[in-house]
Amino acid sequence: MPTEETRIGVFVCKCGTNIAKVVDVPAVADYAKNLPNVVYSGWQLFTCSEEGQTIIKEHIKKHKLNRVIVASCSPKLHEPTFRRTVMEAGINPFYFEMANIREQVSWAHMKQKDEYAEATQKAKDLVRAAVFRASQLESIGSTTQTVPPVCMIIGAGIAGITASTLLADNGYEVHLVERSPALGGKAAQLGFVFMTDTCGVCVPPKHGEMARKCLSKRVLLNDPKIHVYTQTEVKQFSGYIGNFQAKLQTQPRGVNINTCTLCGKCIESCPVEVPHELDLGLGTRKAIYLPFPQAVPRAPVIDFESCTKCGKCAEVCPVNAIELNEPPKNTDITVGTVIVASGFDVFKPDGLYLYGEAPNVLLQLALARMMDPLGPTNGKLQRVSDKQIPKHVGMIQCVGSRDPNYYSHCSRVCCQVAMKHAVYIKEHWPETEVTIFYKDIRLQGKEYERYYLNAKKLGVNFHRADITNVEETTNNGLKLAVAHHNGSKEIVDVDMLVLSAAMIPAEGAKELAHTLNMEVDLQGFFREYHLKLAPVDTATNGIYLAGACSSPRDIAEASFMAAAAASHAAIPMSKGEVEVDLAKSVVDETLCIGCANCYGVCPYSAIQMEGGVAKVIEVACKGCGICVVECPAEAIQLRHYRDKQIYSQIEGLLANVGVAKK
Amino acid sequence: MSKANLKVKTTPPKASSKLTQRFEPRIVSFCCHYCSYGAADLAGASKMSYPTNVEIIRVPCSGRVDPLHVLRALEEGADGVMVTGCLKEQCHFVTGNIHAEKRMQQLMADLEAIGLGGRLVFELMSAGMANKWVETTSSFYDRILELGPNPLKHMKKEVKCE
Fold this sequence. Notes:
The relative contact order of chain A is 0.11. Helix content of chain A is 26%, strand content 24%. In chain A, the strands form eleven sheets. A seven-stranded mixed sheet of chain A has the order 20-26-21-22-23-24-25. In chain A, strands 10-7-6-18-28 form a five-stranded parallel sheet, covered by helices on one side. Chain A has 17 helices and 33 strands. Chain A has five domains: 8-141 and 647-653, 3-Layer(aba) Sandwich (Rossmann fold), CATH 3.40.50; 152-188 and 200-244 and 329-343 and 508-575, FAD/NAD(P)-binding domain, CATH 3.50.50.60; 252-327, Alpha-Beta Plaits (2-Layer Sandwich); 345-504, 3-Layer(bba) Sandwich (FAD/NAD(P)-binding domain), CATH 3.50.50; 584-638, Alpha-Beta Plaits, CATH 3.30.70. The longest helix of chain A is centred in the last third of the chain and has 21 residues, at 555-575. Chain A has 662 residues and is an alpha/beta fold. Chain B is α/β, with parallel strands linked by helices and 162 residues long. Chain B has a domain at 43-147. Mean pLDDT of chain B is 87; it is low at 1-20. Chains A and B meet through α4, α5, α16 and α17 of A and α1, β2, α2 and α3 of B.
């Protein structure tokens, strides 16, 4: 609309006192009145409030505004809000512009009282830049993209399985991709978990069902809507919401899960014995093995790294289920949405507190395996070195967590885990003394306090202390140098030491993030779109997060989050389509010289060369603008960030610089 | 003005400055929406202080910043320009920051050749690295104070807005 007169409205927000305390808001609003094309300028107490938005709409009508500028907080927070506001008043959302005078002005310069005048000047500069830019903005439309009712879920732990069953129950098709040979994740490997002290994947019956059941078993066996891929990783990934393309690579299992009867003869016959990774050095397994007794799929798996291919298992198998020379399998799938539920790993504190050096120093996870009735010691508490029941078990909290040298976060579950294990030990082996060395005890929620009270009642010792040194004694016991936080020091002898190590992002999470083109935070956890308001969404539309892949969580929280992720993923799938704005690259075919530079740099393959000129696939384009800079003919531009728009913003920002400055 | 808590060197401004009595640099920073803009937001939200002189232009990706944008900012009288993006391998747009680095390094060499050396800085940070935002802006501010005003300011003919 080139003939239309540009009429800009500027709304400066006080944000209560958040902005007004530092910036002279009425002065900024007055200043904006004299800027080019501004026909209205005023201030409000809370522009984002219902009332504030109504006032914007009223002024749009009254002054016939066709561009709106709000000077308030970060556009990362309220740009979507105000775009909706102006849209409701009949203005294209891309005619809205924001000046960030809270995060970048008032808050950043709050501490220096003598800078308040400069902060006001900076706010004026930013408003002026927004006004200059607003004059160059263009109206941008949108297109729709169909979203098929198919979701890929990465990771089959508690979160992945819960999300799968919920989506399948709602009628969506699910591709559940799991890297390990068995479903259930970490929880399935634990004999009993808080808060119910039952098995990690045991779920109560639903209405109309008679018995409790195993969550992972149900997923595999009962649901035609769920396609399960074990030993499978996402090798390549591309596309956009509604049209994500994934290349899955499945490693050979070596055993046909459809014919195997789980008679166990192959496991008996296997001559190779290696340490069982699941039992963290406590037990061994054969090269053909069942990962854990309740493992689903219900068939052994061959570890081809240690297998010698002697063929004994194939000889004894009564149903010819063994396939020693199976090649890896590739599967291509197209899905509408993706849920990442890749879970966590436990920090391996090599070199700390003699872990990995002294046999009787182990992780809480290994202790949990030991206490599993189906675990390596059949549920018995015993020292690794001599298989005797320990007389004194020490537990050290916050190993690797809340530690600036390793991970700064609190792992949330370690206090509960230590409490659960301490209580279990005291209940079953009352003569064994248990001492917990902690920095702080953090047990929130309605169920956890009872573990603490119970532990105290049963005589568990709690010492708020740091362990400054650990030495191994002659009988494989451990001598701890304890520095209490109250200043006193002592030496404590224990004969088993259990470390509550940090929950950290799963091994390979970074590579997965790279494959999916997603962001991770400083610790390596997947980054949520907004910590508070959009914790299951991500920066990529159509990809959602569930479980401990974005932060340490317990089973209950992972379940909540999986339910939330499933419902978020269901939104575009139930609508069947999403609206995609066209703030994307656009080619002027009359200028394009067909050099294909843009085609070469596009990370999303969103540019195709057709008939000697470049063409942008708008749904695939993500609007980064890398291609624009590369174009030698200025033929390709990014809508909403065109060169002329950026130039006018620069010009506006620096419009008061020069010789005549007072 | 006091910036004692910022470890800003108290080098006296160059006496040769003809523009103003006391030289207060104007610094334009191009920030990518996903990382460095977030870092600047976080610095503000955490009430961390950095020089008021740094003003941000938001772009979707550091890969959108054209060397011509930087030159335009210098032409319009900016004393220094910052181009900031996501950490390596964490670019929201996969390779935008890599392209940006290549382009800006070339531009830095060109600026050096025309006597505007040191007035451009390229830094990568994640949205969580508010500290790095504060360090980068503070040290760049120091550097510009030492370099003195952008000589192109004299050539700017008109002041478009007071």
